[in-house]
Design goal:
The complex is a heterodimer of chains A (about 500) and B (about 650). By secondary structure, chain A is mainly alpha-helical. Chain A has a domain of about 220 residues. The longest helix of chain A has about 30 residues. The radius of gyration of chain A is 22 Å and the shape is globular. Chain B has about 650 residues and is mainly alpha-helical. In chain B, strand 2 and strand 3 form a beta hairpin. Chain B contains 26 helices and 3 strands. A 3-stranded mixed β-sheet of chain B has the order 1-2-3. Helices cover about 70% and strands about 5% of the residues of chain B. In chain B, helix 4 packs antiparallel against helix 5 and helix 20 packs parallel to helix 23. The chains are: A mainly alpha (about 500), B mainly alpha (about 650).
Chain lengths: ~500, ~650
C-alpha cells in the first residue's frame, strides 16, 4: 500500500485540534498561531495531493481501504476523483484564510480561544474526510460528525441569538441526517440481498435495486443534501446561522460544509440511484430554478448584510443543483467548478462584510454610507468580492455559472432562460448593497472606520488572487473535473445532447 | 475569400498571425497592464498615474497603427488575422479559445478606440489635475480601453462577452467616479443594471449558439449559420439586438445614458460618444452572418434604430444641461447607425462610417463641453452661458467644427456619413427614409440651439464666473478632433470604406432610389437648413430666459422628462418589483420559516401536555395504575367473554 495521503491530510488538522485542546488556556495568540501553522502544513500537503493526482486517469485515486465492521460490510475507505479533489483543495485553501481572518474572533466566546481554533481544525479534518470517503457508511458518520464542531462554533462564539441559531441549524441537519440514516440502512438491506453486504461505493454502484426502492432511498439522501445545500424551502436555517455566527464560521459553513450537500448529490444521488435521479430531475430542476430567483429576490429585500449574503447563497446553490440535474457535461462540470468558485467568492464576501461590521458594530446596511471615502482598500475588496458574486466575466464564478447555464440550455431552454434572469437580480442585490454602504455621502457614524489592516489584507489577498486567476485560467481545475463528471454521467446513463448543426471536419481544420 | 452567396452571410476565414502580426496581443495587453499597475501600485505609482495611463493607451495606438498599415499592405483574402492565445475553457464538446481577430472591421474600431481614447487620456491630464484621485481615474480609463479592445478583438462570442461586461464594469467605475455624490452612485448602478438586462440577450444568444453549433467562435458560427433553422437565426438576431440595445442605449434600454452624464466629462466623451455605445453597432455588424439568415431580426434592428434616432433627437431639444443635450444626440446618432446596420450589406459600411465620424465629432463636442464647464466653474446649465465665443476662442472654433459635422453641413464629416444612411434608408422603405430625414432636421434644430445658447447671444454668466480658455493639454486634443470632424469624410473617397469592409460584410449591392442621389442630398440639406433656421428664430433672435419656461407644450414637457422612460421603468418594473421583494421577504419570514417554528412549537406544546401528567405525586401515580389495571381487566374480560 502506498503512502496514505488522504488519511494524513485529514488527520493532520485533527491532531492540531487535539494539540490545541491540550495547550494552556490563556495564550490566545499562541492558539491562533498553532492553528494557522497546522492549516498551512495541511495546505502544503493538499497541494502535494493535487500534484499526485493524475488528471487523465479515471476513477478514484490515492485510494485506501481497511475493513472496519466486516459483518455490516463497512470499510474505512478513502479516495478522490476530480470532484472530490476539487472540494478537498477548496477546504485546505480556505481554512488558513479563515483562521487568519478570525485571529481575535475566538477571544470573546463562551469557551476558550483554544477551543475556537480547535473546532475549526476539527471541522477541516472532518470535511476532508467527507469529501474523500468512498464508503457510504463512513461518509454518513463523518457527515454527521461535522455537525458537532459547527454547532459549537456557532453556539459558543457567535453574537446575537447564537444559541437559537445553533439549535435551529442542528435540528434541521439532524432531521435530514435521520432520513439519510434510513436510506443508509436501506442500502445495507439491498446490498445484503444481492449477496455479501458492502458499503463500498464501487460495490453499491453495481447493485441492482427495484424501481420504487431506489426512489425511496434516493429521497432520503436527496432531502438530507437539500437541507445542507440549502434549497428552498429547507433553507431558513442558513440566514439565522450566518447572522449569528462569526464571519469565519459562516465561511466554513457556507463555503465548505454546505458543499457536502451538492457534492453528495453528484456522488450518491446520481452515482447510486441513476434511475431515481432521472425520475426526480424535472422536479429538482424546477425547484432549483425557483431557488435561483427566490434566493436572489429575498436577498434584495434584506437589511442585514450577513443575511443578504446568506440568501445570495440560496440563489447560487440553486444554480449548482440545476447544473447537476440537467445531466450534461457542461452542467455537471460547471456545477463542480461552481462549488469551488462559490466557496472563494462567498468567503471573500463574508469576510469583508464581517470586517466592516466589526468596525461599525452593526450589520444593518442603513448604518453605513460613503465608506469608500475613508476605507478605499476595504471598499475595493468589497467590490471585487461582490462582482465575483454577480459573476462578472473575468472573475472565476462567471465561468462556472455560464457553464451551468449552457448545460441547462441544452436540456431545458425554459429553465435556462428563467435562471438567466438571476444575473440581473444578482447585479441588483450586490450593487444596491455596495451603493448603500460604500458610496454616497459619508454616514456620520461610519466616519471613523479604519481601512483594512495588514493581517486582513493578507487573509483576503489569496482569495481575491485565486478569483481573478481562475477567471482567466480555469482549465487546471476543469481538466481534473471533466473526466470525473463524464464518468458520473455515464453512470446515470444519459445521452449527451448533440448540436443541431455539427461542425464538419472541413470547418474544424480552419486555423 | 469566398464570394458571398446571394442572401448568405460571409464566413469568417482567418489566417494565422505571424511576423508583425504576432504583436497583436500587445494592443490589449498595454492598457490592461496600465490598469493593473495603477490599481495595485499604491501611492507612488499613482502620482505618475496620468503619465503611465496615457503612455499605455498611446503605445497601444502606435501598435494598432503599425498593424493597420500592415493590413493595408495585404491582399484582400489575407486581411483576417487570427492570434490564438490560450484555451479559456474546454468542457465536453464545447471549447472556448482566447483568441484575437484583427480584420478590417476590428482594425478601424481599434484605431478609433485607441486614437480617440489616447486624446481623451491626454485631455484628462489637464481636466482632472485638481482631483486627488487622478491616478485612480487613469487606472479606470485604461481598464475601460482594455475591455473595449477585448470586445472588438475577441474571436469568440463568449470572449466578446468578457470585454462587453468589462466595459460595463469600467463605465460603472467611471460614471460613479465621484461616488460621494449620491446622484453619481445611483447613475453608475443604473447603468450597470440596465446593461445587465441587455446582457441577458447576450448570454442566451451564446447558449443558443452552443446548443446549435457546439461552439461560439466566429469561425464556427459563421460556418454553421447557413445550415441553421430560420427560427434559431431569428432568435439569435433578436437576442443580440437586445444586447446591443443595452450597450448602445437604444430604446427600450436607453434610460441609463442620460444619467450617466454624472461622470467626469472626459468619461462622457470616452464612454458615451466614441466607444462604449458603439459596441452594439459593432455587435450587429460583426454578426452579419447571423442577420443574413434572419430578415425578421433585421427589420427589428431597423425599427429600434428609427425609434431611437427620433427619441434621442426629441430629448436633445429640451435639455438645458449641455451634457444631457449632447447625450440625447448621441442616442439619436447611434440610432442612425443601428438603422443602417439593420439594412444589411447595403448599410453595414455606412453604419461603421458614421460611427467613425461620430466618434470624432462627438468626442470633440463632449470635450469641448468639458472645456466650457471648466471655464464656467462646472456649471452645466446652458441658460447660464452665452457669448462664450470671444472668451473661449479655441473651444468655440473646434466645437463649431463638431457642430457643422453633426448637422451635416456640406463638406463636413457628418454630411457624408449621414447622407449615405438616409439614402440607404429611403431605398429600404419610405417610412425609414422619412424618419431619418426628419431626424436630420431635428438634429440641426437642437444642435443649433446648443450652439446659440452657449456661444452666442447675451452673457448670462453667474456673477462669480470669469471664463478663460483652457490650457493647451486640453485644447490640443480639441484641435485634433476638430480637424478630424472636418475631414473625416475622406474615408468615403472612392468608396474606400465600403471596399475596405467588404471582406467582413460582403459586397454592398445595388439599391434603387425614387429620385437621384443628388436630389436626395439636396433634400437633406434643405431639411437641415430648415432646422437651423427654426432654431435661429427661437433662440438666436430673442434672448434666452434665465430659467426654463414653465408654460410649454406637452411634448416639451415629455422631452424634458426623457419621454417618461424612467417613469415607465418605475411603474412597470421597479414598483412591482419592490412589492414582490417585500412580499417574498414576508413569506420567507412569516410562512416558510414560521411553519418550521410552528412545528417545533407543536412538538414542545404537546410534550408540555404530556409532561403535566408527570406530577411526582405517588397518589396520582397510584390512581393511574389503578385506572390502568381496571382498563386491562375490563379489556381482558371483554375479549374472553365475547
Amino acid at each position: 500500500m502506498s503512502f496514505p495521503y488522504l488519511s494524513v491530510l485529514g488527520g493532520l488538522p485533527l491532531v492540531g485540534a487535539v494539540l490545541l485542546a491540550l495547550l494552556p488556556r490563556s495564550r490566545s495568540a499562541m492558539a491562533a498561531t498553532v492553528a494557522l501553522g497546522t492549516s498551512l502544513i495541511t495546505l502544503v500537503l493538499g497541494v502535494v495531493v493535487g500534484l499526485q493526482f493524475d488528471a487523465g486517469a479515471a476513477g478514484f485515486q490515492l485510494s485506501e481501504q481497511v475493513d472496519w465492521i466486516p459483518s455490516l460490510g463497512v470499510h474505512y475507505a478513502l479516495g478522490v476523483d476530480g470532484i472530490g479533489l476539487t472540494l478537498v483543495l477548496l477546504t485546505v485553501v480556505l481554512t488558513p484564510v479563515v483562521i487568519l481572518a478570525s485571529w481575535h474572533d475566538g477571544d470573546a466566546g463562551r469557551w476558550s480561544t483554544n477551543s475556537f481554533f480547535a473546532w475549526m481544525l476539527a471541522l477541516e479534518g472532518l470535511a476532508i474526510g467527507v469529501f474523500a470517503a468512498t464508503d457510504v457508511f463512513l461518509f454518513y458518520v463523518l457527515f454527521e460528525a461535522t455537525l458537532i464542531p459547527i454547532y459549537f462554533l456557532i453556539g459558543g462564539f457567535g453574537g446575537g441569538q447564537r444559541s437559537y441559531a445553533a439549535v435551529k441549524f442542528l435540528l434541521y441537519s439532524l432531521f435530514g441526517g435521520l432520513l439519510m440514516l434510513a436510506s443508509v440502512v436501506g442500502l445495507y438491506v439491498v446490498s445484503a440481498e444481492a449477496g455479501a453486504p458492502s458499503y463500498l461505493l464501487s460495490d453499491l454502484m453495481d447493485v441492482t435495486m427495484g424501481e420504487s426502492t431506489g426512489r425511496l432511498l434516493f429521497a432520503g439522501f436527496f432531502i438530507a443534501f437539500a437541507v445542507k445545500a440549502p434549497m428552498f424551502p429547507l433553507h431558513t436555517w442558513l440566514p439565522d446561522a450566518a447572522q449569528s455566527a462569526t464571519p469565519g464560521t459562516s465561511v466554513l459553513l457556507v463555503s465548505i460544509l454546505d458543499k457536502i450537500g451538492t457534492f453528495g448529490m453528484i456522488r450518491f444521488c446520481l452515482g447510486l440511484f441513476p434511475e431515481a435521479s432521472q425520475w426526480a430531475s424535472p422536479v429538482v430542476i424546477a425547484l432549483a430554478t425557483f431557488s435561483v430567483l427566490y434566493g436572489a429576490l429575498v436577498a434584495i429585500g434584506q437589511t442585514d448584510m450577513r443575511r443578504l449574503v446568506a440568501y445570495t447563497s440560496v440563489s447560487h446553490f440553486g444554480f449548482i443543483v440545476l447544473g447537476i440535474f440537467v445531466f450534461t457535461s457542461q452542467g455537471g462540470s460547471g456545477s463542480t467548478l461552481y462549488m469551488f468558485n462559490h466557496g472563494l467568492s462567498t468567503a471573500a464576501l463574508f469576510l469583508v462584510t464581517g470586517m466592516l461590521i466589526q468596525r461599525r458594530g452593526s450589520a444593518e446596511i442603513a448604518d453605513f454610507g460613503g465608506v469608500q471615502k475613508v476605507a478605499p482598500v476595504l471598499a475595493g475588496v468589497f467590490l471585487v468580492a461582490g462582482l465575483s458574486s454577480l459573476s462578472l466575466p473575468g472573475l472565476s464564478p462567471f465561468v462556472s455559472e455560464f457553464l451551468v447555464l449552457v448545460g441547462t440550455f441544452r436540456t431545458s431552454v425554459v429553465a435556462a432562460a428563467v435562471a438567466t434572469l438571476g444575473i440581473v437580480l444578482a447585479a441588483l442585490y450586490i450593487l444596491l448593497m455596495y451603493q448603500r454602504t460604500m458610496n454616497g455621502p459619508l454616514h456620520e457614524s461610519a466616519a471613523a472606520i479604519p481601512d483594512l489592516r495588514l493581517r486582513e489584507r493578507l487573509a483576503l489577498a489569496p482569495v481575491l488572487g485565486l478569483i481573478v486567476i481562475l477567471g482567466f485560467f480555469p482549465q487546471p481545475l476543469l481538466e481534473v473535473i471533466d473526466p470525473a463528471v463524464g464518468a458520473t454521467l455515464e453512470q446515470v446513463g444519459v445521452e449527451q445532447p448533440k448540436p443541431d448543426v455539427p461542425l464538419t471536419a472541413a470547418d474544424e481544420e480552419q486555423p | 475569400m469566398l464570394p458571398a452567396e446571394a442572401g448568405g452571410g460571409v464566413p469568417v476565414l482567418p489566417v494565422e498571425a505571424e511576423g508583425l502580426f504576432s504583436l497583436l496581443w500587445l494592443i490589449v495587453a498595454l492598457p490592461a497592464l496600465g490598469a493593473v499597475l495603477l490599481l495595485l501600485g499604491g501611492r507612488a505609482v499613482n502620482r505618475l498615474g496620468h503619465l503611465v495611463g496615457t503612455a499605455m493607451s498611446a503605445g497601444s495606438f502606435v501598435v494598432a497603427l503599425v498593424l493597420f498599415i500592415g493590413l493595408l499592405g495585404r491582399g484582400e483574402e489575407e486581411r483576417q488575422v487570427q492570434q490564438q492565445l490560450w484555451t479559456w475553457l474546454e468542457v465536453g464538446d464545447y471549447t472556448v479559445d482566447m483568441g484575437l481577430l484583427f480584420d478590417p472591421l476590428s482594425a478601424v474600431f481599434v484605431l478609433l478606440i485607441t486614437g480617440v481614447g489616447s486624446l481623451i487620456h491626454l485631455y484628462s491630464i489637464g481636466y482632472m489635475v485638481h482631483d486627488e484621485r487622478r491616478g485612480r481615474f487613469f487606472a479606470y480609463l485604461n481598464l475601460f480601453v482594455a475591455a473595449m479592445l477585448v470586445l472588438v478583438l475577441a474571436d469568440d462570442y463568449l470572449a466578446v462577452f468578457l470585454g462587453w461586461e468589462g466595459v460595463g464594469l469600467a463605465s460603472y467605475l467611471l460614471i460613479g467616479f465621484w461616488a460621494h455624490k449620491q446622484s453619481a452612485a445611483v447613475a453608475a448602478k443604473k447603468a450597470f443594471i440596465v446593461n445587465r438586462v441587455g446582457d441577458l440577450g447576450m448570454s442566451l444568444a451564446v447558449m443558443a449558439m452552443v446548443a446549435t453549433f457546439s461552439t461560439s467562435s466566429f469561425v464556427g458560427v459563421s460556418a454553421g449559420m447557413p445550415e441553421a433553422s430560420s427560427g434559431i437565426a431569428t432568435a439569435l438576431g433578436l437576442l443580440l439586438l437586445l444586447a446591443a440595445c443595452g450597450k448602445s442605449a437604444q430604446v427600450p434600454l436607453q434610460s441609463w445614458l442620460l444619467d450617466a452624464m454624472e461622470g467626469p466629462t472626459p468619461v462622457s466623451a470616452l464612454i458615451h460618444a466614441a466607444t462604449m455605445v458603439t459596441a452594439g453597432v459593432y455587435l450587429v455588424v460583426r454578426s452579419n452572418f447571423i442577420y443574413a439568415e434572419a430578415p425578421v431580426a433585421q427589420v427589428a434592428v431597423m425599427v429600434v434604430g428609427l425609434v431611437t434616432l427620433l427619441f434621442g433627437a426629441v430629448i436633445g431639444c429640451a435639455k438645458d444641461d449641455i451634457k444631457k443635450a449632447l447625450a440625447g444626440s448621441t442616442m439619436s446618432q447611434i440610432g442612425y447607425m443601428m438603422l443602417a446596420a439593420g439594412i444589411g450589406p447595403a448599410g453595414y459600411a455606412f453604419a461603421i462610417f458614421h460611427l467613425l465620424t461620430h466618434g470624432f465629432f462627438k468626442a470633440n463636442m463632449f470635450l469641448g463641453a468639458g472645456s466650457v464647464m471648466h471655464a464656467m466653474d462646472d456649471d452645466v446649465d446652458m441658460r447660464h452661458y452665452g457669448a462664450l465665443s470671444r472668451a473661449l476662442p479655441i473651444t468655440f472654433v473646434t466645437f463649431a467644427a463638431g457642430y457643422l459635422a453633426i448637422i451635416g453641413f456640406p463638406g463636413f464629416a457628418g454630411f457624408w456619413s449621414k447622407d449615405k444612411i438616409i439614402e440607404a434608408a429611403f431605398a429600404e422603405g419610405w417610412i425609414f427614409g422619412v424618419g431619418a430625414l426628419l431626424g436630420a432636421g431635428v438634429t440641426a434644430f437642437y444642435m443649433t440651439r446648443v450652439m446659440l445658447m452657449t456661444f452666442f447671444g447675451d452673457k448670462r454668466w453667474r456673477p462669480e464666473v470669469h471664463p478663460h480658455e483652457s490650457p493647451s493639454v486640453i485644447t490640443v486634443p480639441l484641435m485634433v478632433l476638430g480637424a478630424l470632424s472636418v475631414v473625416g469624410g475622406v474615408l468615403l473617397l472612392g468608396g474606400w470604406i465600403t471596399h475596405w469592409l467588404e471582406p467582413v460584410t460582403g459586397p454592398e449591392g445595388e439599391h434603387e432610389l425614387f429620385v437621384s442621389a443628388l436630389v436626395l442630398t439636396a433634400m437633406v440639406t434643405l431639411t437641415v437648413a430648415i432646422g437651423v433656421a427654426v432654431a435661429w428664430v427661437v433662440f438666436g433672435r430673442q434672448s434666452v430666459p434665465d430659467s426654463a419656461p414653465q408654460r410649454v407644450s406637452w411634448l416639451t414637457r415629455a422631452a424634458r422628462n426623457d419621454l417618461y422612460g424612467d417613469a415607465f421603468n418605475e411603474a412597470v418594473f421597479m414598483r412591482p418589483g419592490q412589492q414582490l421583494v417585500r412580499g417574498l421577504v414576508y413569506v420567507d419570514d412569516k410562512i416558510i420559516d414560521a411553519s418550521v417554528g410552528g412545528l417545533a412549537a407543536l412538538v414542545s406544546g404537546s410534550s408540555g401536555q404530556v409532561r403535566r401528567s408527570q406530577t411526582g405525586f405517588v397518589r396520582s401515580y397510584a390512581l393511574t395504575m389503578l385506572g390502568g389495571a381496571l382498563v386491562a381487566v375490563v379489556a381482558t374480560l371483554a375479549v374472553t367473554l365475547a
